[in-house]
């Protein structure tokens, strides 16, 4: 081998810009997504040394196998009844049907904007089952399942989306930016990642106060690149805040594939390891796995063991929002090629395998939910939609800027004629 | 009553608030064990424990973001940004979050938080320890912005800010921490102990937000100012021989329009004076409000005296700072306009 000439110039530098495996026109390929068989990933004790469970940030915890059976240690740790699971199935079906109706309403110009959950229903619906009254979610715009699973009325969600006279947000917020303190659902910002550190602060406050409540932070794969994600991890780690740090990796941040935010790190869950935060990676399309991992993390928080990071591996089957057309940047068939399947179908098959469900009952339930939601929608539309019917008073535009309206704002309100 | 420096007055206010309400928590960079780089929180951790007063990672967005979460929970965070110049990483949290929680959640979630930060120049701090960013906050609806000019007000305004149900930006002119600085940088440093406004009432003492204070009554011209420049204005008034009425605004938002309008209608002339840069500064808002409310009483154009539109320089500090000579000259010119 010839010796390298130490004086020879190095080749010029070149910039690396990661690219997804395929673009429109290409053949969808998820062969790079390594998927362990269901039931094969161990379940450590919640007080396990974080250093001893670093491997869980690089695998995928799965419970439901291809036959619809719940298998392995994470399944064994769950103590839910078939009725609990039927409730979970109902939550997911409700969310999907609600989404379809609202998406359609947006196309009919009854509202300006909508964001659906298609393919991601198990994550928010399943996670909420691990929380108790008084706990607080700091959600993004794709976790409405938290509200549905917490029993928030769909009619109020619709009123918000339509910005009508019964909108709890008084016509101030973009559609889907819900808020319900009573249901443990913090007001959605729309700015990304800001709520992540707020969840940590809320959890710190609970600990400072000697309370028993815990917080859950939510973020998408793309927004983990924001500085506030780092802020949240360092604060959560330093103060051992009772918080669950959720990362929903749905592969796409609008048109940007997850590799742009992830960089050279193997997984998003691995981000937590540098902070000494136990970090798990879970099949986000597996309702039971989501619930099992959420309970593990919530228990850690409640036992004052500190934060847990969870990466949900899933796929955003729909567009980012109604303003987005995914066919411009990814193959249209990619959604069907996603190897983790559909969360509703998988839970349905499990319930059928348990002998407590059937295709007929499923179809019947679907029809019932659709009828209920359609009826609610009619009621909501009768109150008003974005451009028709009754809306909150324009005087509401000036309220709640401050607890007490300062003179300059009062003057402007009078000038505006409200 | 006790004579205090502004640092002691701020610490006293925090002590009173923490003693009164177990929900008051104080945190920031170097704030806990050490008691802050300006010593405003000295002794609080020892007295109230480290879950009520603690050090944070160097992450301003984290400090404010965590504070917002705590405020939404029901605590009363009083956070310190080590220098106002360091607040920018937290700006998104302040503008998009703290200022809007109440509005966007229709009152479900609120943010009763105080964000304290040393502001202004006069200490040879260069561009990263001297800025006056108040206009960046007064422009954001949902926030209140406060700038005390003396120990008595510092305590009273801080206690009002902590009691306030909404987020308050509390800017502490750092050159005033240890004495009333009138801009004569070449003279011996004056201590607070001989100043009457260093008399700070013990225990609970509040100064309401939104009320200005008349520091000198006069007939010839109204000077609208706040923070360090209050003392500069008083010195310049004495040195110029112009009978100026000096108004210390104390709270920039909400603004005490009644005091301002009454004074300008009386004097017919108005100077707006601040350390911050000129363009789109808070002085522009003051000038606009004064012309709208007092146009037919004005005998001369409103005059703005401010820092120059340059980054805050180091060596050139005293050429940048709107000191008493510049203010006095402007006062003389202002009263000469027919």
From TrEMBL, chain A:
<keyword id="KW-0786">Thiamine pyrophosphate</keyword>
<dbReference type="InterPro" id="IPR022593">
    <property type="entry name" value="Oxoisoval_DH_suAlpha_N_dom"/>
</dbReference>
<comment type="similarity">
    <text>Belongs to the BCKDHA family.</text>
</comment>
<dbReference type="GO" id="GO:0009083">
    <property type="term" value="P:branched-chain amino acid catabolic process"/>
</dbReference>
<feature type="domain" description="Dehydrogenase E1 component">
    <location>
        <begin position="91"/>
        <end position="385"/>
    </location>
</feature>
<feature type="domain" description="2-oxoisovalerate dehydrogenase E1 alpha subunit N-terminal">
    <location>
        <begin position="11"/>
        <end position="51"/>
    </location>
</feature>
<dbReference type="InterPro" id="IPR050771">
    <property type="entry name" value="Alpha-ketoacid_DH_E1_comp"/>
</dbReference>
<dbReference type="Pfam" id="PF12573">
    <property type="entry name" value="OxoDH_E1alpha_N"/>
</dbReference>
<dbReference type="InterPro" id="IPR001017">
    <property type="entry name" value="DH_E1"/>
</dbReference>
<dbReference type="GO" id="GO:0003863">
    <property type="term" value="F:branched-chain 2-oxo acid dehydrogenase activity"/>
</dbReference>
<dbReference type="InterPro" id="IPR029061">
    <property type="entry name" value="THDP-binding"/>
</dbReference>
<feature type="region of interest" description="Disordered">
    <location>
        <begin position="1"/>
        <end position="29"/>
    </location>
</feature>
<dbReference type="Pfam" id="PF00676">
    <property type="entry name" value="E1_dh"/>
</dbReference>
<keyword id="KW-0560">Oxidoreductase</keyword>
<comment type="function">
    <text>The branched-chain alpha-keto dehydrogenase complex catalyzes the overall conversion of alpha-keto acids to acyl-CoA and CO(2). It contains multiple copies of three enzymatic components: branched-chain alpha-keto acid decarboxylase (E1), lipoamide acyltransferase (E2) and lipoamide dehydrogenase (E3).</text>
</comment>
<protein>
    <recommendedName>
        <fullName>2-oxoisovalerate dehydrogenase subunit alpha</fullName>
        <ecNumber>1.2.4.4</ecNumber>
    </recommendedName>
</protein>
UniProtKB/TrEMBL annotation, chain B:
<dbReference type="InterPro" id="IPR029061">
    <property type="entry name" value="THDP-binding"/>
</dbReference>
<keyword id="KW-0560">Oxidoreductase</keyword>
<dbReference type="GO" id="GO:0009083">
    <property type="term" value="P:branched-chain amino acid catabolic process"/>
</dbReference>
<dbReference type="Pfam" id="PF02780">
    <property type="entry name" value="Transketolase_C"/>
</dbReference>
<dbReference type="Pfam" id="PF02779">
    <property type="entry name" value="Transket_pyr"/>
</dbReference>
<dbReference type="InterPro" id="IPR033248">
    <property type="entry name" value="Transketolase_C"/>
</dbReference>
<protein>
    <recommendedName>
        <fullName>3-methyl-2-oxobutanoate dehydrogenase (2-methylpropanoyl-transferring)</fullName>
        <ecNumber>1.2.4.4</ecNumber>
    </recommendedName>
</protein>
<dbReference type="GO" id="GO:0007584">
    <property type="term" value="P:response to nutrient"/>
</dbReference>
<dbReference type="GO" id="GO:0003863">
    <property type="term" value="F:branched-chain 2-oxo acid dehydrogenase activity"/>
</dbReference>
<dbReference type="InterPro" id="IPR005475">
    <property type="entry name" value="Transketolase-like_Pyr-bd"/>
</dbReference>
<dbReference type="InterPro" id="IPR009014">
    <property type="entry name" value="Transketo_C/PFOR_II"/>
</dbReference>
<feature type="domain" description="Transketolase-like pyrimidine-binding">
    <location>
        <begin position="4"/>
        <end position="179"/>
    </location>
</feature>
């Amino acid at each position: 081998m010839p010796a390298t000439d130490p004086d020879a110039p190095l080749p010029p530098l070149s910039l690396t810009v990661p690219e997804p495996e395929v673009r429109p026109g290409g053949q969808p390929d998820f062969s790079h997504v390594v998927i362990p068989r269901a039931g094969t990933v161990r379940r450590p004790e919640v007080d396990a040394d974080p250093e001893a469970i670093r491997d869980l940030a690089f695998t995928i915890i799965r419970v439901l196998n291809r036959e619809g059976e719940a298998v392995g240690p994470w399944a064994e740790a769950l103590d839910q009844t078939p009725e609990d699971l039927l409730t979970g199935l109902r939550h997911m079906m409700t969310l999907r049907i609600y989404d379809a109706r609202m998406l359609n309403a947006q196309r009919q110009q009854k509202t300006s904007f909508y964001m659906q959950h298609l393919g991601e229903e198990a994550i928010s619906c399943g996670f909420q089952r691990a929380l108790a009254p008084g706990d607080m979610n700091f959600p993004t715009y794709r976790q409405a399942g938290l509200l549905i699973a917490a029993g928030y009325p769909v009619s109020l969600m619709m009123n918000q989306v339509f910005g009508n006279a019964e909108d709890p947000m008084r016509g101030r917020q973009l559609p889907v930016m819900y808020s319900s303190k009573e249901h443990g659902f913090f007001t959605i910002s729309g700015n990304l990642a800001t709520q992540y550190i707020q969840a940590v602060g809320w959890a710190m406050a609970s600990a400072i106060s000697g309370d028993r409540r815990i917080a859950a932070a939510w973020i998408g794969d793309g927004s983990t690149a924001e500085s506030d994600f780092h802020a949240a991890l360092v604060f959560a780690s330093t103060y051992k805040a009772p918080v669950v740090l959720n990362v929903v990796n749905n592969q796409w941040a609008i048109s940007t594939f997850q590799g742009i935010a992830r960089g050279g790190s193997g997984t998003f869950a691995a981000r937590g390891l540098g902070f000494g935060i136990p970090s798990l990676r879970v099949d986000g399309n597996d309702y039971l796995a989501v619930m099992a991992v959420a309970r593990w993390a919530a228990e850690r928080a409640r036992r004052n063991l500190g934060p847990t990071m969870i990466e949900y591996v899933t796929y955003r089957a729909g567009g980012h929002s109604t303003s987005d057309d995914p066919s411009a940047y990814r193959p249209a068939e990619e959604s069907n090629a996603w190897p983790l399947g559909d969360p509703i179908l998988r839970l349905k098959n499990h319930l059928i395998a348990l002998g407590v469900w059937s295709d007929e009952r499923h179809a019947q339930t679907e029809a019932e939910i659709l009828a209920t939601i359609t009826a609610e929608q009619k009621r909501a539309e009768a109150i008003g939609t974005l451009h028709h019917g009754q809306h909150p008073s324009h005087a509401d535009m000036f309220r709640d800027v401050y607890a007490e309206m300062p003179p300059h704002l009062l003057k402007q309100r009078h000038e505006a004629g409200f | 009553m006790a004579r205090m420096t502004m640092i002691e007055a701020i610490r006293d206010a925090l002590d009173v608030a923490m003693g009164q309400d177990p929900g008051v928590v104080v945190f920031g960079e170097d704030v806990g064990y050490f008691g802050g780089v300006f010593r405003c929180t000295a002794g609080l951790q020892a007295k109230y424990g480290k879950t009520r007063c603690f050090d944070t990672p160097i992450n301003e967005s984290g400090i404010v973001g965590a504070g917002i979460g705590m405020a939404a929970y029901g605590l009363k965070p009083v956070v310190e940004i080590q220098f106002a110049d360091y607040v920018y990483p937290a700006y998104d949290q302040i503008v998009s979050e703290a200022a809007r929680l109440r509005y966007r959640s229709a009152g479900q979630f609120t943010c009763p938080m105080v964000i304290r930060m040393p502001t202004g120049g006069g200490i040879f701090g260069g561009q990263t320890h001297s800025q006056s960013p108040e206009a960046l906050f007064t422009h954001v609806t949902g926030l209140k912005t406060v700038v005390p000019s003396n120990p008595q007000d510092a305590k009273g305004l801080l206690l009002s800010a902590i009691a306030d149900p909404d987020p308050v930006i509390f800017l502490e002119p750092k050159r005033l921490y240890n004495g009333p600085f009138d801009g004569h940088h070449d003279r011996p440093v004056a201590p607070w102990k001989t100043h009457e406004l260093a008399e700070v009432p013990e225990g609970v003492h509040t100064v309401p937000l939104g009320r200005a204070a008349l520091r000198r009554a006069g007939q010839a011209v109204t000077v609208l100012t706040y923070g360090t420049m209050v003392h500069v204005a008083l010195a310049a008034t004495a040195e110029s021989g112009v009978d100026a009425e000096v108004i210390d605004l104390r709270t920039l938002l909400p603004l005490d329009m009644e005091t301002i309008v009454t004074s300008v209608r009386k004097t017919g002339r108005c100077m707006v004076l601040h350390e911050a840069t000129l363009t789109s500064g808070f002085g522009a808002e003051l000038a606009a409000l004064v012309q709208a409310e007092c146009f037919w009483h004005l005998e001369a154009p409103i005059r703005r005296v401010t820092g120059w539109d340059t980054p805050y320089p180091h060596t050139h500090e005293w050429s940048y700072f709107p000191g008493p000579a510049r203010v006095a000259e402007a006062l003389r010119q202002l009263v000469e306009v027919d």
